Amino acid sequence: MKKILSFIGLAIISSSLYSQGSPDYGGGLKINLNPNGDKYVRFILWDQFWIRNSDMNPGSMVGGEPTENTWNLGNRRLRALAYAQITKRYMILTHFGINNQTFINGGAPGTSGTGSYGNGKKPQLFFHDAWNEYAAVLPGEAGKFSLTLGAGLHYYMGLSRMTMGSTLNFLTIDSPIFSWPLIDNSDQFVRQMGIFAKGKYGKFEYRMSLNKPFATDLTPTNTLNPDNAVAVDNNGNPNWSKAGYFEYQFLDEESNLLPYKVGSYLGTKKVFNLGAGFYHQKEGTRTSVNSNIEKHDITLFSADAFADIPLGNAKNKMAVSAYAGYFNYQFGPNYVRNLGIMNIAANDPNFVGQRAIAGPGNLQPMIGTGDIIYAQAGLLLPSQAEKPKIRIQPFAAYTHKNFDAYEKSSSQFDVGANWFMDGHHAKVTTQYSTRPVYTSATESPTSKGEFIIQLQIYL
């Protein structure tokens, strides 16, 4: 009976994994499969709910009504993840859920109108990740070197820290999105199917993958002038993609058990890293000139830096979090992809005036051939209380994009604050963001804004 009670206690409570800024969280929802706790199953559940007010691009309508500004509610993410350490070398992971469900879209395929399968209702669950991995060289077996090999639908997509960022602990309200440059084109919500290798050599961490991208089949618009050719996603029978990210961790070492890179440690670690990465797929896009199809490689590079440093006297519990990255994207001539998170608008057919090139709602030129510079920083304000009711972390971010398709570059910013009730496990985030609005490829863009409140729970 004593052994049974001990096993039940271990199954309920474990502290083998650090908490996300909460002293009460421990190891989370974890079931140990043996008394030692080195064989286990862990579950992670989370929801991010948005309340948002958005200025619409010119020529937008929502629900058949022309509008320049509107409110929106939506489940940005509603997910569940489970991973099992079967032996000390073998682990399996699954991750499923929904994204971007609003009052009017994001529901099950083909839903419309009213009734039980009306607009925005009953979204489709799908797998984000599903892979298994084997630790060929465990830490300590070969000095400073370790190696794990895996295969499946995975998130080891290289390129940058942000490309593999955890959605549970962003500094800002969300990813800048452009760091997921293939999102839902040749990947499945940032994932591809393939094989990967990860590991460390001392403070040097590496991640590499070889994947078969999902097929894309957009038809390029034919042009007689090669200077006007616009590349689109069409990879035919896709060539293999190669990706990698390499990072040196100067201070505390970060865990590489899972691929998800932490956005803000809230002072629980002292981290300073420099990294660089790439993604390459041969003949990933196409153009049409004089009815002749030309194929173009997708070649993406990045270099970035990340710091999360406690500040001042330890009793004040202050910390600074910062990230900066440079991204060089080559998708082919004049490639631009317009995206808007949870865009609820459609084109107003009766609009008279200059429409946004990107389209209606909150669409913007998110990804394209050219260069992007991104930086963000936040400050966890001091608190001397043992268990403060709320911790506050103001932050700001800046993005500069210079795409070949536009003569003028664009700049945009985000400013806001995290309001932590229980670290990242229970927090409210408020943020105001701007976006560029191009009505001409030769003129400077104007700017629109949106205000978002996010409610996050994470177990």
Automatic annotation (TrEMBL):
- Its domain of life reads Bacteria
Q: What is this protein called?
A: Short chain amide porin
